[in-house]
Amino acid sequence: MLVRYANLVRLPHTVFALPFALLGVVAASFRYPVAIRQLVLVVIAFTAARFVAMGFNRIADKDLDARNPRTRTRELPAGRLSPAQAWIAVIVAAIAFEAAAWALNPLCFALSPLALAVITLYSYSKRFTWWSHLWLGLGDAIAGPAGYLAVAGRWSDPWWLLPVLAVAVTLWVGGFDVFYALQDETFDRAEGLQSAVVRFGRAGSILLAKLMHGLTVVALLVFGWAAGFGWPYVAGVVAGAAILAWEHRMVKPGDLSRLNAAFFTANGIVSIVVFLGALG
Distance between CA 117 and CA 106 in Å, rounded? Predict the structure, then answer.
């Protein structure tokens, strides 16, 4: 049963954004002491929030997933988990998230309902706007500022430090979600769903992803400068940029055969190398 729940939310994909949550922690550590307790609570809060987001998305999309050849083998449409079982897990995860936010500090707890709203309402965004890619990115981007606030208990100085980090992660996630949606172009058009590939076609979507990822690199560099990171961080961002460039070379409008390698491999590595650079 635990394996089914892990598959429901693709638990290994936690690697995508967790390093950016920890990047916020590292940035805060330049001004505030970091306790092991805080670090553990950040990991719990992030993992629980991601479970809520993914679990709720699977529930909201279960009928669509059942009609999509690519997704019909997922836990809910395949019947390996019932909607009731999924709902129970999502509710438990939401409670765990709120408990972790409460244990961190009053500011995190006060903002936690807003975070839950952003990550759950995303599931319906692609029904009415192609901007859903950026909505998904924003849901992941909450992690970075949240990691900072978990340690500091107050907003950053300068005030724009955390928004810049959020912009970087929003564009990073949004860009690779644009890539991921390429394989569902036919299905999305048939179902009346909104996505970049439906709006702009394959070539236009790939160009959009290039723009997003280019701006991601710029935003990460600005964030690192404002946070006080040194040259190892810059090296990490440059390495991440090289990986993104490799990712874009693998995905062509007429050839999506290497899309999964680009999505699962490249993006998992990008966040890790940037975080390791920050530790340096």
Answer: 18
